[in-house]
Design goal:
By secondary structure, the chain is mostly beta strands. It has no helices and 29 strands. The chain has strands at 25-30, 38-43, 49-53, 60-64, 70-77, 84-89, 95-99, 111-115, 124-126, 129-134, 151-158, 161-167, 176-183, 187-190, 192-198, 210-213, 219-223, 227-232, 243-248, 255-261, 264-269, 278-282, 300-303, 309-313, 320-326, 331-337, 340-342, 352-359, 362-369. β20 (255-261) and β21 (264-269) form a beta hairpin.
Length: 370
């Protein structure tokens, strides 16, 4: 297990606005009131999406469109929503629900339930298989000390297996996600620990909350509350052995679901912290590989207690020339700063923006909210 494989690429990326006719990110809709605690996202019929709430909600699946309308409500018979955290489909249209949320790290009933032909369901559906499992590296419930990387919120189906990616609840968090695999058929298993990847941060708030793989298997995405990691050029299911890019979503929200569709990424977030409860579309073309970059550009957003942006802290004593763009790539403001870029520099604006910062060591671009 290579927990430090990717520490060399915890870096920035730059956006090429010469072809930014497609928005970097588009807010599509507000989610229906009955699913404001969205916790997973998957393709559905008729260009709709399947989603669901997390723990303490009924065992229900919602089929929603990109306007925020609920097209179908499905009641699931045969499982209780202890903590549904992600969903995925296989090539035959079977849906898998990950009932494996484990905030307290004490669960011994972790499971994934399987529902056949979900896209044909219109009212009630039944669980046909249950995949019960444990982790090979968890021996106490909860674990002793700070070894607590056994929460789970991310899953997808690929090459006849289920692939799971952990949410680190160590205290302090060690900043990596573990990759496990499980069979796709019902039974009781010990998950296979495959590898791990560094995703930074020392708080579970910024750990992995969802995952998906593109329809052609060429790209894999991991989601956190403030960024997306995009993996490509991998062999088989060695996702961390290929190239990786990072999109920093500087606006913080409780992002919980991610899904590929027709070349785009779709993301949903919970309504919390006074924001969220939305569906967004992101163009993966904004990602630029940073595998071979060597200079770390340390830019950090600072928020107040109401999660309003206060400033960006910049690399010490490095002049920063910055440009502010809207999400369609239109330049609307520019300036220069040293050490700190205050939000007061942005002229009475509100909404989502992209800022591109240029330093001697390179560029960094951030998506953020004013």
């Amino acid at each position: 297990m290579n927990k430090f494989r990717s520490t060399s690429w915890l870096l920035a990326f730059s956006l090429n606005f010469s072809f930014a006719q497609t928005p970097v990110i588009t807010e599509l809709c507000t989610l229906p009131n009955e699913v404001l605690e969205t916790s997973g996202l998957e393709n559905g019929p008729n260009n709709w999406f399947w989603t669901h709430n997390d723990s303490s909600h009924p065992a229900e699946l919602f089929c929603i469109d990109t306007t925020g309308a609920t097209q179908r409500l499905i009641t699931v018979i045969g499982d209780f929503n202890n903590d549904w955290e992600d969903i995925t489909k296989d090539d035959e249209g079977n849906l898998y629900i990950g009932n494996f949320g484990n905030n307290a790290l004490t669960r011994t009933d972790l499971r994934i339930v399987k529902i056949p032909s979900i896209d044909t369901c219109t009212g009630i559906t039944y669980v046909t298989d249950t995949i019960n499992f444990t982790y090979p590296d968890q021996n106490s419930f909860p674990p002793t000390g700070t070894y607590g990387n056994f929460d789970m919120e991310a899953m997808f189906h690929y090459q006849n297996q289920l692939h799971l990616f952990s949410k680190d609840r160590s205290n302090p968090a060690v900043g990596y996600s573990k990759h496990y695999t499980l069979p796709e058929v019902g039974g009781t298993y010990v998950a296979t620990l495959v590898d791990s990847v560094a995703v930074g941060h020392t708080s579970y708030v910024f750990s992995i909350t969802s995952a998906d793989i593109s329809e052609d298997g060429s790209q894999m995405a991991l989601l956190t509350s403030d960024r997306i990691w995009l993996f490509s050029n991998f062999s088989g299911s060695d996702f961390f052995g290929g190239d990786v890019s990072e999109l920093t979503l500087s606006v913080f929200s409780q992002k919980e679901g991610i899904c590929f569709r027709n070349g785009f990424l779709y993301v949903t977030d919970e309504q919390s912290f006074g924001m969220g409860g939305k569906m967004y579309r992101i163009d993966p073309a904004v990602f630029v590989s940073v595998v071979n970059k060597t200079a770390t550009i340390d830019v950090k957003p600072v928020y107040d207690s109401d999660l309003n942006l206060v400033e960006f802290t910049l690399p010490t004593n490095q002049p920063c020339n910055w440009q502010l763009f809207n999400t369609d790539g239109k330049l609307i403001q520019s300036g220069s700063s040293i050490n700190v870029l205050s939000a007061s520099e942005f002229e009475k604006k509100s909404g989502l923006y992209v800022i591109r910062m240029s330093f001697e060591g390179g560029q960094k671009s951030l998506l953020f909210k004013l």
